[in-house]
Amino acid sequence: MERKKSERQDARTATNYAQIRRTIIGRVKHEDIQAPTDGRKGVSRPAGPSSVVFARAALSADGLLKFVTEVGKTYPQICHFRLMREHAYILTDPTFIVEVFANSGRHTMKGRALQGAKAFLGNGLLTSNGDAHLHNRRLIQPAFHRDRVAGYAQQMAALTVAHEMTWKDGMEINMSKEMSELTLLIVGRTLFNSDLSGDAREFGEALVHVTQSMNARLLMSPRVVAIDLHIRTPRRRRLLENLSRLDQTVQNMIDEHRALGDVGDVLSMLVDSSDGQDALSDEQIRDEAMTFVLAGHETTSTTLGWLWVLLAQNPQQAAWLHEELDTVLGGRSPGLEDLPNLPRTQAVLHETIRLYPAGWIQGRRLLADIEVGEWTLPRGAMVFASPWLMHRSERWWSGAEQFRPQRWITLEGAFDEDAPKVPRGVWFPFGWGNRKCIGETFATTEALLIIATMAQHWSPQLVDEQAPAPLSGVVLRTKDGIKMVLHKREPLAELKQGVGL
Ligand code: HEM
What we know:
Blueprint: H1 2-29, H2 51-59, H3 63-74, E1 78-83, E2 86-91, H4 94-103, E3 108-110, H5 112-116, H6 118-121, H7 130-140, H8 146-164, E4 172-174, H9 175-192, H10 200-216, H11 222-230, H12 234-260, H13 266-272, H14 282-313, H15 315-329, H16 343-355, E5 362-366, E6 370-372, E7 375-377, E8 382-385, H17 387-391, H18 440-457, E9 461-462, E10 471-472, E11 476-477, E12 483-485, H19 491-497
Parallel strand pairs: 2-8
Antiparallel strand pairs: 1-2, 3-5, 4-12, 5-8, 6-7, 9-12, 10-11
Helix pairs in contact: 1-11, 2-3, 8-9, 8-18, 9-14, 10-12, 12-13, 12-14, 14-16, 14-18, 15-16
């Protein structure tokens, strides 16, 4: 009898998995624009690294970052290489980058990695194309308007203070995990009025696993991702379990919002739109919500992780930041109104994003031929531009590899994003045009409030002498997180020692 019951249970779970698998494969195959391929013969293509060099780089964890850096040194304008069976280009001349990414946006679509990522993200803002993207972008844009983000600031600061209360002097922490939990909590509360880190441990774990799976499949073509999902392995089973956990949590949030009515968050707005002409289906709402969870927390949390590493490695710069925080805030929690008075904090964040741009590579597939300089980039080709490469090039930045937040400060002591005076096409951490990060204001407000709160009281130090190396994934990550030990700051003692001021 017992056995029959467990067999029935197994059969039910198997049907569930079959359903989830079908849904996911359906997502990968969904194309709002059919992707053209570049099979053109006899076209003249610029020189570039061999496919063996690329394949070798793709096989090692930090290989792609090194590959891109090497490309920047060897090919000062453009290079061509074979990405598996496709023709691909990396642009290293800023005017070429502007031509493809800014001026020709409507002749491009997202590339193969994001098509594969639809397995997880569905067809949300990050992955969709053409009219479907434009429609939803217009619908969602107001939720990320500066005024709306201002309304989230108080919660961002309060959640940071609450998180900080769990920290103790001398405690050893994994800073990546700390920042990931905090930013997930903030995204959940502000955008969905839900506690994603209470329901959460399970949700958080599922999210980490799904993100790792996305990293592992980054270079697979969408077809290979679909085939991979067909093959029965324990790995696939775990992925399906975690995806269905994420789907279920998001579906519960949608149901709750339908029952509650408008609670003034992003999810209310999406659910509300279902009554109007522009109606979004539950599936579309899920896709957008999942995109915000994934795009909105991993990016900011890894950026903050790198910021703590850079402060620990550069005590003089940390002291320069501390001086501002002590003077302007004097120990109290910051609010939105304080941010314009914290130019050094803004400079430290920008310098971190310069050295560790979460969106380290951006790719497009061309929907039409595009001319750059003497070259014709054919319709169907994949084209890449890398903030990692352009933000770290000595051609544009003096002391490019060094952490020098002062480059963002004017002679009058103000923060100015144009202060480094680099040409257009060199600095693009949040992307371009109508594909620009919708969460930029949200992310910078959140990160500034977190640093201003925490760096006032804490000066975390690296446990290992060697800082963790960046690895390329969906964002710039570390292998096992960032081990740090917490030191409570004593502002007066620092002043007496005159640390770096
Ligand atoms: C430091 C933090 C962040 C960085 C560096 C970053 C970077 C980027 C970049 C480079 C893109 C463009 C990708 C491309 O063109 O292929 C992008 C798009 C996007 N980001 Fe962010 N992001 C951050 C935070 C956030 C946050 C907090 C959210 C949401 C709460 C968010 C949501 C999105 C969405 C939805 C898109 C797609 C926009 C579209 O195509 O219409 N991001 N982000």
